[in-house]
Amino acid sequence: MKLWNKLMCYCRRRSPWLFHMNSGSCNGCDIEIVASLTPRYDAEQLGVRLEGSPRHADILCVTGPVTHNAVEAIKTVYGQVYGPKAVVAIGSCPATTNVFIDSRTLDGPLNRHIPVDVFVPGCPPRPDAIIQGVARAAGILAARGNKPQTIETAAEPVIVPETSEVKA
Amino acid sequence: MITPEIWGSLTTALARLLIFPGLLFAVPAAWFFLWVERKAVARMQGRVGPPFMQPFYDFIKLLGKDTPQRTGIGGLLMRLWPLIAVSAAAGAVGLLPVLPASGGFQGDLILLLALLELPSMCIIAAGFSSRSIFGEIGSAREAVLSVSYNIVFLLAILSIAASQHTFSLSALAQLPSSPLRWLGIAALLVCLPAKLHLNPFSLPNAEQEIYSGPMTEYAGPELAMWELSHGLEWVAATGLVATLIAPSFALWWVAALVFVAISFAIVLLLSVVASATARLQIDTTVRFYWQCTIIFAVLAVASALFMRFRA
């Protein structure tokens, strides 16, 4: 049983399937998510797969500053992801609502509505920062085991710094 | 009254179903073929691709996810379809005449064709019983597709069988090489991408278009079973073509090695074709199978009839 748990832990870390959700983003971060799957960054080496259905996903990637219209959709999709699950907020918008702060069309930031595990700041973040954030989330997913995700466990989100070095 | 002969054939059948080419061989082979497919696509796109154990990691991870609550007859059916698909595909792999003198019976070709068809029936039923709009679209596409390619698929196999007056797989595996056999194999190869939902004909599970088609509402262990049944379908379908291509060997381990090598080559070929092509529309696909590919099948049937009359 212990061996099985260890194996499960390892497999969870090695096989994060993503569902990408836009909550009113400007499309900048969405493009960078796609870029992290392209030949140059190739997130599939970590076992990452972008899934079409939230039912298949382990990690919910949310972009955008959470508009009023998006709140119910985010809660629905978050409920449709079966546990164990993790949430990654991609870009500065879901973390702080960014330049749209105090806008009356917004109901952000994201962690007012669902627990967030990893924040990846940047406007937009680089693809390698996104991959790093997803890898962190997969590690959190493996460490948490079958315990449900709660506000308490997500109280101290991991912040992935924006990487500045550019590979030649 | 159980005689030693019955015991012998029973143990042979169990060994074929459980060890080789059955479950003990087929499940790792299924994961391996799923990996080869993903890796080949990645290499064709200039990426590194997933690690070797990736399908295994995915399978174990899916087993450990929460299971959706399902109630009533519809929920029971939704749980049942992936299990039926896995057992049918595993049974189909177990029937393949890989080893010489491995038993088999008159008519096992018909059983194999039925078992190969069962997973796609389950996919159709699963999409409709999930009651998701994307599942229903995917199921309708799968149904149209299976009506199209099965004409060619069945005609090709039946013409090979009819030319030899036999429905026994082990007899077909030992056929001498003839133009008719190669015609039949070409027709089968054209049908395989549609049977395995690969790219020019990946309509039922068209990602980015209808999410995951019939699989949209599945999660956790049920999705793991679908992945496994897809892998086993790979093994069974490529294995069927491999047994038709492979010459017969007296040594059992040579036969097994040649079988695995030819299956691997077919997987590689199909994956490369899949990554080099884009998805066709449903009407183009149907037209392709009904208008272009049926020529193969008609030629195969005609030459089979010709061979029978000449014999």
Please give a handful of descriptors for the protein shown:
heterodimer; A: 168 residues; alpha/beta; Rossmann fold; six-stranded parallel β-sheet; 6 strands; B: 311 residues; mainly alpha; 11 helices; globular
SSE layout:
The complex is a heterodimer of chains A (168) and B (311).
Chain A: H1 2-14, E1 17-22, H2 28-35, E2 49-50, E3 59-63, H3 68-80, E4 86-90, H4 92-96, E5 118-120, H5 127-144, E6 158-159
Parallel strand pairs in A: 1-2, 1-3, 3-4, 4-5, 5-6
Chain B: H1 4-18, H2 23-44, H3 54-63, H4 72-95, H5 108-130, H6 133-163, H7 169-173, H8 179-195, H9 220-245, H10 252-276, H11 282-310
Describe this structure in words.
The complex is a heterodimer of chains A (168) and B (311). Chain A contains 5 helices and 6 strands, in the order αβαββαβαβαβ. Chain A is an alpha/beta fold and 168 residues long. Chain A has one domain: Rossmann fold (3-Layer(aba) Sandwich), CATH 3.40.50. Chain A has a 6-stranded parallel sheet, with helices on both faces. In chain A, helix 4 (92-96) links the parallel strand 4 and strand 5 (118-120). The longest helix of chain A is centred in the C-terminal third of the chain and has 18 residues, at 127-144. Chain B has 311 residues and is an all-alpha fold. Chain B has one domain (4-310). Chain B contains 11 helices and no strands. Chain B has helices spanning 4-18, 23-44, 54-63, 72-95, 108-130, 133-163, 169-173, 179-195, 220-245, 252-276, 282-310. In chain B, helix 4 runs antiparallel to helix 5 (108-130). The A-B interface holds A 7-8, 10-12, 14-15, 17, 38-39, 42, 44-45, 47, 51-53, 55-56, 58, 82-84, 146 and B 38, 42, 45-51, 53-54, 56-58, 60-61, 63-68, 134, 207-208, 211-212, 215-220, 223.
**Main sheet of chain A: which strands, in order across?**
2-1-3-4-5-6
Q: Give the amount of beta strand of chain B, in percent.
A: under 5%
Gross geometry of chain A: globular
In terms of DSSP E residues, the strand content of chain A is 5-15%
Can you summarize the main beta sheet of chain A?
A: 6 strands, parallel
